[in-house]
Amino acid sequence: MSDELDPSAKKLALRAINYGLHVLTATDGKEYGAGGVNWITQASFEPPLVVAAVKADSGSAAIIASTEAFAVNVLGADQLDIGKAFFRSTTMEDGELNGHPFEAGPVTGSPLLTETPYWFECRVTDTVARGDHTIFVGQVVSAGVRDEGSAPLLLRDTGMNYGG
Amino acid sequence: MSDELDPSAKKLALRAINYGLHVLTATDGKEYGAGGVNWITQASFEPPLVVAAVKADSGSAAIIASTEAFAVNVLGADQLDIGKAFFRSTTMEDGELNGHPFEAGPVTGSPLLTETPYWFECRVTDTVARGDHTIFVGQVVSAGVRDEGSAPLLLRDTGMNYGG
């Protein structure tokens, strides 16, 4: 075995991690950031912590850095179309975010998409800015279920991937 | 909507995050730590970073804190039995880790299970010790594929979960 990092093996091994797909949102009350994000994991039960890695040069990362808050909207298995709407730049028109309705999260005000089955809001406790994505550690301060029993979308099932 | 954190909604929303199942391993050359871990995500392409949340009071977390290295072995879809073997205390007998063969990782020496389809080794770059699991950020320094095309195990498919 080589002690070099083989780019091809790295890609395949990292793409073997399973992910869902989520729309991560943030706002400072003036600007909005919203993007499809799969690099998310829980990281503690008590306190309830999650980790989200957000493109470092994105509008969302800039807003989160200033507000220290974000929300995660978990897409259901049949909601890839919603996810795809958030692979492009954030728009706010006619009170909709990238064409989708939302309401303000009860604790942080972060946008909650009203069509997705699960959501949670977080307050940032720690930030690691080391790579091309900023790692935000967030404490879950509010959560909700709009469609209990809905199966979350599995990124692998879409034929897409983001990783490697 | 209430501005309280509803424990039931929190549980359901956090369990909606999709995960694989992995055996995370570490050694200081004398003691070995190995455990089934699902709270793992990539967190940067360049440098290639991953985040793993490891039970703070575990032997593995203690070893990683001292060696600043670990490996992740990604289980294949038909390898739940291997995962279950690492839900108990770590044993090293007859040159096997919890009854499974391994070899030393080429860069960090962390144990690599020879039966699993994908693996990567990491050097810890950052640590966040805030909750009941320690968040290790690791740079991928070596990776391998033993069974290309093997589908990784999806935790949801096992009927088990760890989160909420």
Question: How does this structure look, described?
Answer:
2 copies of one chain form a homodimer. With 164 residues, the first copy, chain A, is mostly beta strands. Helix content of chain A is 15%, strand content 40%. Chain A contains 3 helices and 11 strands. The first copy, chain A, has helices at 7-15, 59-67, 80-85, and strands at residues 22-27, 32-37, 40-44, 49-55, 69-74, 92-93, 96-97, 100-104, 111-113, 118-128, 133-145. In chain A, the strands form 2 sheets. Chain A has a 7-stranded antiparallel beta sheet. In chain A, strands 6-7-8-9 form a 4-stranded antiparallel beta sheet, with no helix packed on it. Chains A and B meet through helix 1, strand 3, strand 4, strand 10 and strand 11 of A and helix 1, strand 3, strand 4, strand 10 and strand 11 of B.
The stretches of 5 or more residues of chain A where confidence is low (pLDDT under 50) are none
Q: Count of helices of chain A? A: 3
Helix content of chain A: 10-25%
**What structural class should be given to the helix and strand makeup of chain A?**
mainly beta
Q: Give the H and E element order of chain A.
A: HEEEEHEHEEEEEE
Biggest interface pair, counts: A-B, 62 and 62 residues
Shape of chain A: globular
Strand order, largest beta sheet of chain A? 2-1-5-10-11-4-3
The percent range for strand residues of chain A is 35-45%
End-to-end separation of chain A: 20 Å
Main β-sheet of chain A, in a few words?
7 strands, antiparallel
The average pLDDT of chain A is 96
The tally of strands of chain A reads 11
Integer-rounded radius of gyration of chain A:
16 Å
Oligomer classification: homodimer
